[in-house]
TrEMBL record:
This is Cysteine desulfurase. CDD domains: SufS_like (cd06453). Residues 26-394 form the Aminotransferase class V domain. It holds the Pfam family Aminotran_5. The keyword Ligase does not apply. It comes from Muribaculum gordoncarteri. Its EC number is 2.8.1.7. Belongs to the class-V pyridoxal-phosphate-dependent aminotransferase family. Csd subfamily. The lineage of its organism: Bacteria, Pseudomonadati, Bacteroidota, Bacteroidia, Bacteroidales.
Length: 406
């Protein structure tokens, strides 16, 4: 496998030249959002300077060019996910909107007493949209527990299915623990009960190859901004047979076939679910981000991140009082931790003074924090541009912080 030329790749990310409090920035908040390479920003800039025109409406050249760019991204995403057809690729504002779309539209046919299976490690984005269904009917969440490593209890999962189960909604990779869940196995089990599965891929797509046909998932969702792409764009993959049956999520322009004051007929897939002007500039730039990532090679990125994870985790273990949350085998490059009784916020603040950007708090996973018996953690997460030298500086900083706070 190719080794990454990280020094060269870092030059693609001008933000990495920044200093914070006079120290070189060490950006370890990649789980929240990754940084953006120049080529993606260049695409945005070029469109604003040369091609910006609304999609799907105009006969004029620029509108047609812009439409072609948007639809080329749809095809690029289809290839990336190995989906069968571009009509199964719907652009949204992000993972959150994609899950809300599915919950709202699928939930339309739910009745009182129906159940949705989620896991203890879901992001709020994969909890709250399902809970909102309870405004109109009684929908209960059934929760898959995990062990102390952060590995889901599949026995318990199997026992949660009953005649009321309507959906399984599971994260591919935990944004707190880094656990890579056995989604393929979970999907096969759900399908034995004729239950569809939504996989939240927000933390997966930048770190591993995803094949929706191999997984056989019914829905797969992710955000562009976590995979070196622009903000404001997300993707919903859905199996055509389900998307065809589902009612639209929002109404407006672009998603209709015919409108009168009495009645509206809807556009074909995927446009039925794309009401209003999409972020066509962002969508075009997502194409550049996918090309960038795949040009480097997702397996090479994963190997590099895994090396950093192992290198850093081993050295963190030597720090007195270090508690790491999430030790599942094969985990993704996310390290959640606390140092003794030191508050996560204090640790994060001190690290920031040393130029190191980490995330602190509950990471939009309060039920998981509750299960762990804590209020929050400090979270460091790696991307393709992080280095062992940065890991060394991070470890040295943690030692200083540990000495100060304990
Ligand atoms: N799910 C997971 C696992 C996430 O990590 C995130 C982002 N932190 C989301 C969903 C929500 O993504 P977005 O805010 O881009 O919609």
């Amino acid at each position: 496998m190719n080794q990454l030329d990280v020094a060269a790749l870092r030059r693609d990310f001008p933000v990495l030249d920044r200093t914070i409090y006079g120290k070189p920035l060490i950006y370890l908040d990649n789980t929240a959002t990754s940084q953006t390479p120049s080529c993606v920003v260049d695409t945005i800039r070029d469109i604003y300077f040369h091609t910006k025109a609304n999609v799907h409406r105009g006969v004029h050249t620029m509108s047609q060019e812009m439409t072609a760019m948007q639809e080329a991204t749809r095809e690029r995403v289809r290839q990336m996910l190995n989906a069968e057809s571009t009509s199964e690729i719907i652009f949204t504002r992000g993972t959150t909107e994609a899950i809300n779309l599915v919950a709202s539209s699928m939930g339309d046919s739910f009745v009182d007493g129906d159940e949705v299976i989620v896991t203890v490690m879901e992001h709020h984005a994969n909890i709250v949209p399902w809970q909102l269904l309870s405004r109109n009917k009684r929908v209960t969440l059934r929760v898959v527990p995990m062990d102390e490593r952060g590995v889901l209890d599949l026995e318990a999962y199997r026992s949660l299915f009953n005649s009321h189960t309507r959906m399984v909604a599971v994260t591919h990779v935990s944004n707190v623990l880094g656990t890579v869940n056995p989604v393929k196995e979970m999907i096969a089990e759900a399908h034995r009960h004729d239950v569809p599965v939504l996989v939240d891929g927000a933390q997966a797509v930048a770190h591993m190859a995803v094949d929706v046909r191999d997984l056989d998932c019914d829905f797969y969702v992710f955000s562009s901004h976590k995979m070196y792409g622009p903000t404001g764009v997300g993707v919903l993959y859905g199996k055509r047979s389900l998307l065809e049956m589902m009612p639209p999520y929002q109404g407006g322009g672009e998603m209709i076939a015919n409108v009168t004051f009495e009645h509206t007929t809807f556009a074909e897939l995927p446009f039925k679910f794309e009401a209003g002007t999409p972020d066509f500039v962002g969508i075009a730039a997502l194409h550049t981000a996918i090309d960038y990532m795949q040009g480097i090679g997702i397996d090479a990125i994963a190997a590099h991140e895994h090396d950093l994870l192992q290198y850093t985790t081993e050295r963190m273990a030597d720090i007195p009082g270090m508690r790491i949350f999430g030790t599942a085998p094969g985990k993704s490059a996310v390290i959640s931790f606390l140092i003794g009784d030191a508050h996560h916020y204090d640790t994060g603040l001190l690290l920031d003074k040393l130029g190191i950007a980490v995330r602190t708090g509950h990471h939009c996973a309060q039920p998981l924090m509750h299960a762990l018996g804590i209020e929050g953690t400090v979270r460091a997460s790696f991307a393709l541009y992080n280095t062992r030298e940065e890991a060394d500086t991070f470890i040295a900083a943690l030692k200083r912080v540990a000495a100060m706070l304990q």
